[in-house]
Structures are given as C-alpha cells and as structure tokens.
C-alpha cells in the first residue's frame, strides 16, 4: 500500500465515492426539480442524462486520479504537462473550499433541526424555539459543530477515517430513507404524489427547460468538476476495473436521488391532504428550502408524537447526506497541503477547516449579500467550467495510449471493451458541447 493511503476494499471505495456524490443536492435538489419539471418526465430524462453526461465526466476524474496517484494540482499538472493543469487544479481547490464554506452552514441547519426534533419530543419548548430561530448564534454554533464532525472523520485518513465512516453512514442513510418511505406510503394522499412522480407527462419530455434542468441535476448531483472524485480515484488500487467501479458509484447516486423523490413528493401530497399549503401562488410546488424547512415540518406537526420521530429521522438523514459530501470536499485541499508541504495530516485538517470555517462565519455575518452569491459563483459558474476543463484534459491533452494503459491495469481486455470504443471520443466531443450548452442556458 502506498504512503498516500488506499481504499482497502471495493465496497469501501464505492460507498465513499457514492457518499461524496450523495449530498443535499440529491435529497432536496432532485425532488424539487421533479416537482418543478413535469414529475416523471423529468425523472426519465435525468436517468438518461446521468449516464450520457455525468458518468463519462466521472470516469475522466477517476482515471486521472488513479493514473497520477496525486492531489488535484499535481494530477492535472502531470496530465497537462505544465502550469495550465496546476492552475486549473488550484482553481478547483478554491472552488471546493468555497462550496464547503456554504455547505457547512446548511449542514449545521440540518443538525439543528435534528436536535430540535428530539428536544421537542422531550417537551423543552424554549430550547426548541431557539433551535428553529434563524439567529447568528445558532448558525455559528451548528456550523462549527458540523465542521468539527467533518474534521473528526477526515483526520483519520483514507482507511480509518473516510472509508470507515462511509461504510457506516451510507447504509444508515439507505435504511432511514426506506423506513420513512414505508411510513409515508401508509398516509392518506401519498398515492396522489406517487402518481405525479411515476407517471410521465410526455408532452414535457423534450422541452428545453426540462432538459437543461435534468442535465444540470445529473452533473451536480455527482459532485463533478471540483476534484473530489479525482482524489478518491487516486486512492483506488491499480488492480480494480475502473469503468465498473464508476458505474457502481453512478447507480448508487442515481438510486438515492430517485428514492429521495419517492419519499418527498408523496410526503408533499400527504401534507396537502393534512391541510398544509404545498403550492405557490403561480401553481408551482413549493421547493428547496421552503420545502425542507416549512412544508415538511408543517406536515410533521400534523402527525402528533409520531411526527416528532419522523422529523428526527428525516433531518438525521439530511445531516448524514451533508456529512458524506463534506468529508470528500475537505479531503481535496487537505491532500494537496499534506503532499506538497509534508505537514502532518491532523494538523493540516484542523488548519484548513479553520480557514474554511472563517469563510463560513463571513458568509453567516453577511448572509443576505454573500450566501446566494457564493452558491451561484461556485455551482452555476465555476463547477461547469471546471468540468469542461476536465473533459478537455481527458479528451484532448492526455495521450490516448496512456489512458488505455491505465485501463489495462485493472482489465487486460480493456481495448476490446464497449467503454473504450465509446468513452474517448465521447468525452472529447460530446461532453464539452453538452456542458457549454448547459452553461450558456444557465444564464
């Protein structure tokens, strides 16, 4: 095993990489997009585009990571043979750090709501109200707690930190989702939501807005472009068949998104049945933060004591989803500093976490100005451009024979595989065009 650390098992890698991909984007973003874009028609296009766009870009990251066995700056520097790659790698580190700065604020909200559900069950009303209030103190405290949990996992390293906790947290996430889905489906109104989710309106199937939204969701839900998958790829053994591992990660990520929709869309219609408003004035389903922090808590409130337990399980689910993504984000700058400056891992983790937490504090203290701005800057603009650069490096700059030799390490017959016949030209021509169109449309 290399001194860098390496995943000890195939399952460990798949669950860690899936955990990175499965974040709040899957559990609140995906159902929201479904609700806003014609229900099942969106689900169908998302499933198609996840494999047409997200999987090839995911494979570019994993291949670059494993071939170079390096942090994101050195990896892209090696592939591009110069400073252009290093600059792009540095840009990726800045982007992922900014994403983690706002993500840890939202993760903190999830933790606060989880504890509030427990406190509410115990009857401590004043504490419950403080936990729900959007105050500076609450936001700072729980952002710090969320960051400390992330630090605790990442400081353990690849096997004893990231892999060990991913193998625990991801199955827990699945179990909570399935139990909640089972419970919601016993409630009045759930079948109406299920029909909206599963029966496509084919008239909307090829509308440009739906296609762009599905493409964006597929791309962002796998946390592509910012180096998290590249780093995890660098911790994979050369003996593994990478295209299969990448497909497994994609399937788990898509599965969680689809399951989240199966849970949340029927839950919204249960809320409607219980007298909770789920539609905005323009007739659209309420979405994103309104859905998570207003519609669903109002639903839980109509369920009595059981509602408290369901609320606790739901926000615990959201906290786990946030945490499995945040550990991969923190690993990107940590791996760079550990390898380039030879500083001990634990010291590095605390140092970088402190810098990112300082950025989070800055956002919290200037919330109205900075929160939306940082999200748009990173996820709408920087992430797709980084994804485009990765496609250009993998498709145009990296020597084709080197890619094939890397694939052959895990599969001697890689040259005859369907993956090798399609992927090189696909990532060279198709993916860049799709990303540019998506980027242009996002304006």
UniProtKB/TrEMBL annotation:
It comes from Rheinheimera muenzenbergensis. Keywords: Membrane, Transmembrane, Transmembrane helix, Transport. The chain crosses the membrane at residues 12-31, 43-64, 85-106, 139-162, 169-190, 210-233, 245-271, 291-317, 349-375, 381-398, 418-440. PROSITE patterns: NA_NEUROTRAN_SYMP_3 (PS50267). It comes from the Bacteria. The lineage of its organism: Bacteria, Pseudomonadati, Pseudomonadota, Gammaproteobacteria, Chromatiales. It is found in: Membrane. The keyword Manganese does not apply. It is a multi-pass membrane protein. InterPro entries: Na/ntran_symport, SNS_sf, YocR/YhdH-like. Its main location: membrane. This is Sodium-dependent transporter.
